[in-house]
Design goal:
Elements: E1 4-8, H1 13-24, E2 28-33, H2 36-43, E3 49-53, H3 59-73, E4 78-81, H4 96-123, E5 129-134, H5 147-167, E6 172-180, H6 189-192, E7 194-195, E8 201-202, H7 210-221, E9 230-234
Parallel strand pairs: 1-2, 1-4, 2-3, 4-5, 5-6, 6-9
Antiparallel strand pairs: 7-8
Helix pairs in contact: 1-7, 3-4, 4-5
The structure holds NADP nicotinamide-adenine-dinucleotide phosphate (NAP).
């Protein structure tokens, strides 16, 4: 039987590339995101795609998405917890609204989706499944003026570790992919120049998002008794590795 997956943030960028790679690989894929038209574009008429407009920060909306998956397919093998936003601002100037909005999507949204996924995976026969959380190299080190994004991405690492440990009881594996500079809308500004730690503005290299999709497909394809706990993939020459 075909494996089933939920991909959040599937209407653009990494989520779209991962969802389309999973569809090509024979998965049935529920596409989640707020914009239905963008999800339809990702689905591109595939009979194996389920367009599920969802706000991941809203508990009822997330429950409805996973309820539809349970009704339609009866099981869930994979959650790719990908939806995320980036609000710029330093600790001195970020508004509490932007802080809360970032926490709501990047952290609470991932928790809500993981909770529904784990419940489905726990209750199904055969039991279990896999969750891949999309962290970031901002889960390791901040860019200037990114306090909310960096804090939430560090928190995603804690979420991944906790799900990995708790998930053992139900045969749920959990891993995290930490990406640096895949070419998407979020990273378009890299080409124009972006602030560096030493105050300079520098253009940064990006890499093709399909390599992220290939990496997620590899993580997803492992048997449940093996797990990639953390995988870091970056543009090779971006200024992440290195120090003065
Ligand atoms: N590109 C990179 O190099 C890079 C590096 C590190 C980490 N990441 C992470 O990768 C993930 C995807 O980023 P991307 O580069 O592909 O950027 P993107 O194209 O902006 O994708 C973000 C996606 O999240 C969805 N989203 C935002 N708020 C949502 C909400 N409340 N509910 C449901 N979906 C929501 C958006 O769809 P709607 O607006 O339709 O809801 C959009 O499809 C993010 O978690 C980001 O932090 C990316």
């Amino acid at each position: 039987m075909a494996k089933t997956a939920v991909v959040t943030g599937a209407g653009s960028g990494i989520g779209r590339a991962v969802a389309q790679a999973l569809l090509r690989d024979g998965y049935r894929v529920a596409l989640a995101g707020r914009r239905a038209d963008a999800l339809e574009e990702t689905a591109d008429g595939s009979p194996d795609a389920l367009v599920g407009p969802t706000d991941v920060s809203d508990e009822d909306s997330v429950a409805a998405l996973f309820g539809t998956v349970r009704e339609r397919w009866g099981r869930l093998d994979l959650l790719v917890n990908n939806a995320g936003i980036s609000a710029g601002g330093t600790v001195a100037d970020l508004s509490v609204e932007d802080w809360k909005r970032t926490v709501d999507v990047n952290l609470t949204g991932m928790f809500l989706c993981a909770r529904e996924a784990v419940r489905l995976m726990r209750d199904q026969e055969p039991r279990g499944g896999r969750i891949v959380n999309n962290g970031s190299i901002s889960a390791h080190a901040p860019r200037p003026a990114s306090v909310a994004y960096t804090a939430t991405k560090h928190a995603v690492t804690g979420l991944t570790r906790s799900i990995s440990l708790d998930g053992r009881a139900w045969n749920v594996a959990c891993g995290q992919i930490d990406i640096g500079n895949a070419a998407t809308e979020m990273t378009e500004r890299m080409a124009a120049g972006i602030p560096q730690a030493d105050g300079r503005i520098l253009a940064e290299p990006t890499f093709d998002v399909r390599h992220v999709a290939d990496a997620v497909l590899y993580m997803a394809g492992l048997p449940l008794d093996a797990n990639v706990q953390f995988l870091t993939i970056t543009a090779t020459t971006m200024p992440f590795i290195g120090r003065g």
